[in-house]
């Protein structure tokens, strides 16, 4: 077995579809991590993931360990968690062994140069856990220049202190959405487990519509916001808007031509949960799910009233089960 064995950037024979993956993964090579790449790969398969992004702290040391653990059923995207002095960001789609510099803070004014290097090779830059409550974890850079925001990091439970930082990240992202979509430059939401310990991988993960199971196609889906975030593979969401004979899915734009827009969200796996639809007016529609956890929410609106719609599904205790990127109505 070769000492350095990088994973392939494409899994053959997997066409257009929704792929589940964890974009924020640490092995035992990161501080506080306890799982080997081999154990993470086994857990990824067991928890229903199709891909994962390896994002060790300030290091590419494990890139060459993943080749033997990737396979026909698991894509491994090379990345890094760039742990700067004033916030962390995820560089996804790096070249084998590529390390992005992390030794700066917001006052140095150099972050754009590092984002630019990742963009130049087709990579994606994600603002990580922006409201993390520990020193240097709180994200102090402007979002401009970043491609996506990790609004959901780790387990979202109402009994955990870090629940507050997910709520803050989501509300900040949701608040900026109307103006950002109007300007035509918005940053999609993503979720990642930030796994360090056993049992955390995939909680949550991002479900991406991609043309194939490859690094480029997954990153393109994330960049376009054709994605939603799931607490686990037990949760299913399908979300569309129809107007006349036209339809659009998550991250897409629908030409309503003044016709009524029929919003449809189908959720499974959230027993007694609550589904809410959000527009520029805030929470525009709410419906409870039955004990069995499956239901379809239908709501009528127009582009004039709702320039975008996004969906959330929460458990009865208020913790998140699923959230989507918006569908734009024009
Ligand atoms: Zn971090
Ligand atoms: Zn992390």
State the main characteristics:
about 325 residues, alpha+beta, Immunoglobulin-like, 15-stranded mixed beta sheet, 4 helices, about 15% helix, binds zinc ion
Number of domains: 2
Tell me the CATH superfamily of the largest domain: Metal-dependent hydrolases
CATH class of the largest domain: Alpha Beta
Number of helices: 4
What small molecules accompany the polymer chains? zinc ion
Assign the CATH topology of the largest domain: TIM Barrel
Mean pLDDT: 96
Number of strands: 19
Secondary structure blueprint with pairings:
Elements: E1 17-25, H1 37-46, E2 51-54, E3 75-84, E4 87-92, H2 111-120, E5 124-127, E6 148-153, H3 163-183, E7 189-192, E8 205-210, H4 215-224, E9 227-230, E10 236-243, E11 246-249, E12 253-254, E13 261-268, E14 274-279, E15 282-288, E16 295-301, E17 308-314, E18 320-324, E19 327-329
Parallel strand pairs: 1-2, 2-3, 5-6, 6-7, 12-19
Antiparallel strand pairs: 1-8, 3-4, 4-5, 8-9, 9-18, 10-11, 10-13, 13-16, 14-15, 14-17, 17-18, 17-19
Bound molecules: zinc ion (2 copies).
One zinc ion (ZN) is lined by residues 81, 88, 128-129, 137.
């Amino acid at each position: 077995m070769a000492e350095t064995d990088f994973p392939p950037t494409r899994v053959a024979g997997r066409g257009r579809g929704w792929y589940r993956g964890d974009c924020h993964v640490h092995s035992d090579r990161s501080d506080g991590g306890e799982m080997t790449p081999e154990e993470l790969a086994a857990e990824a398969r067991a928890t229903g993931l199709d891909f994962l992004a390896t994002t060790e702290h300030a290091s590419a040391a494990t890139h060459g360990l993943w080749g033997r653990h990737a396979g026909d059923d698991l894509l491994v995207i090379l990345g890094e968690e760039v742990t700067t002095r004033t916030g962390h960001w995820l560089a996804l789609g790096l070249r084998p062994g590529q390390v992005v510099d992390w030794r700066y803070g917001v006052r140095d004014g150099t972050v754009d140069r590092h984002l630019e290097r990742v963009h130049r090779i087709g990579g994606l830059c994600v603002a990580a856990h922006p409201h993390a409550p520990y020193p240097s974890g709180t994200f102090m850079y402007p979002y401009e220049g970043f491609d996506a925001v990790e609004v959901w990091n780790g387990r979202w439970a109402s009994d955990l202190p870090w629940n507050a930082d997910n709520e803050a990240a989501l509300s900040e992202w949701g608040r900026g959405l109307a103006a950002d979509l109007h300007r035509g430059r918005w940053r999609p939401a993503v979720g990642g487990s930030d796994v360090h310990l056993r049992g955390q991988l995939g909680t949550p993960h991002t479900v991406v519509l991609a043309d194939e199971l490859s690094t480029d196609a997954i990153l393109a889906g994330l960049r376009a916001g054709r994605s939603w975030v799931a607490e686990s593979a037990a949760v299913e969401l399908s979300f569309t808007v129809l107007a006349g004979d036209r339809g659009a899915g998550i991250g897409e734009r629908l030409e309503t031509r003044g016709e009524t827009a029929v919003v449809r969200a189908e959720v499974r796996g959230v027993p007694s949960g609550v589904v809410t639809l959000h527009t520029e007016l805030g929470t525009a529609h709410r419906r409870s799910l039955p004990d069995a956890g499956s239901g379809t929410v239908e709501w009528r609106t127009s582009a004039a009233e709702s320039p975008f719609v996004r969906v959330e599904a929460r458990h009865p205790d208020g913790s998140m089960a699923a959230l989507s990127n918006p569908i734009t109505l024009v």
